[in-house]
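Fig. S4 source data, part A: sequence.
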Amino acid sequence: MQALGNRGFLVEAFTILFIIAAVAAVWVWVKKSQKNSPKQAANELEPKLDQYHQAISATAQRLVEIINESLKIANESKNADTKVSRLDVAKKRLEELKKLSDEHSFIKLTQLSKVEQSIADLEQEFLQAQYREAAEGNMRGQELEKEGNVDAAILEYERLLEEGVDTPFTYRRLAIIYSKRKETDEELRVLRAAIKNIPVENSTHYKWFAERLAKK
């Protein structure tokens, strides 16, 4: 796997995934006072928007926004860790939204099948590109570094490169570790490999490696 260049993703970002049925027409008539005469009570009845329904609708709308944003980031990001984490967020929030819809009949999910298919397509894309393996490997490397087991972290990062499950993060961590250890030859090897495998279009990461290599 080359380090996350511009890939032809199967899924387009959704601007609006769901249409939530409006509940503005739901009114509750409340008596202000039981002591008034029937005529007075009738005159004093006033419409009051059902706050409970509004709160549920607001929660559903917020879940929709999170799903939209997460799928867009998962689709467009060039970082494997970000792609995987945002897809997982979208999946979790979608389950919450489906549960909310099951519990409240006034919440209508009009594009549910399309969204579920989009998530399935991204999952397949990530599986083929080994993004999840890359994200999990980078996470293991980070944990090993935090534990002070740098040698094991190097082995984990190098394993990712050897298996082609590489990301800019993998190269960056190795370059930094080798630099701190003053292992210049190893650092140069990693920097050159990064320049070779990270597309120029991935400008932020490419620039970091190019500038670092130029100083050596």
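Fig. S4 source data, part B ends here. The radius of gyration is 26 Å.
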